[in-house]
Specification:
Largest sheet: 5 strands, parallel
Number of strands: 5
Distance between the termini: 34 Å
Number of helices: 9
């Protein structure tokens, strides 16, 4: 059976690094019956890193990528914080986007929130407390990086912007991500249509390619 391939245009180096870890993990798995190559492939070319979540920058990079990959599935992975705050008029531009630009796949609100969802136990609970009503309310009103990076590094000492610890992607961490999808922030003050979760997209693709892989492990 042919592999399912997605080319991902990334907002930044953290997303790019995550996709490298993800694909390395998938490539290490035994091939399924009927498959002659890794059944699910996430391609993140270095030239596909926008180095910013500005709508116009991502739109231009998507169009450039599409011109050289006319038949490929091309997705855009970005943080939602700029669109939540309407920084650089990102929400206005997104609301007016044409049919030629796909619905973005967002981390809600940023990559660090997506990163935290791969954990469980005390570390996850500390992050949820920090972002919730009893903490800094980041999930309702996303902070800028200088407001949350010190806390993410305290809770998750192995995390570094643009880099991920070895072994970050595993079946266990992906099961955590699936179990924690309901913790994603949902506030959308500009009522933007056609916004999608990268985490939900990822889990759906993995479950389709690797049936049963993310089922809970019996106690």
């Amino acid at each position: 059976m042919p592999a399912k391939r997605h080319i991902i245009v990334c907002e930044g180096e953290s997303e790019w690094a995550c996709l490298q870890r993800l694909q390395s993990f998938l490539d290490s798995q035994s091939l399924l019956d009927g498959h002659f190559e890794t059944p699910l492939q996430f391609i993140a070319p270095e030239r596909g890193v926008a180095k910013g979540g500005n709508f116009n920058k991502l739109k231009c990079l998507y169009n450039k990528t599409r011109r050289s990959n006319t038949k490929a599935s091309i997705k855009i992975w970005a943080d939602f914080d700029l669109y939540h705050r309407n920084d650089l008029s990102c929400a206005d531009h997104y609301a007016a986007k044409t049919d030629g630009i796909p619905d973005f796949l967002f981390s809600f609100h940023n990559f660090e929130d997506f990163y935290a969802l791969h954990f469980d136990g005390a570390a996850l609970n500390q992050w949820l407390s920090f972002g919730g009503p009893s903490g800094r309310r980041h999930f309702l009103n996303p902070l800028h990086s200088d407001g949350y990076l010190p806390e993410i590094k305290r809770i998750f000492p192995g995390y570094g912007k643009g880099g991920l610890p070895a072994g970050f992607v595993s079946w266990a961490s992906l099961r955590n991500l699936k179990a924690n999808l309901h913790h994603q922030p949902t506030s959308n003050p500009h009522d933007l249509k056609g916004i999608r979760s990268f985490a939900e997209f990822l889990i759906g693709e993995i479950e389709q390619a690797y049936p049963g892989s993310l089922d809970p492990v019996p106690a």
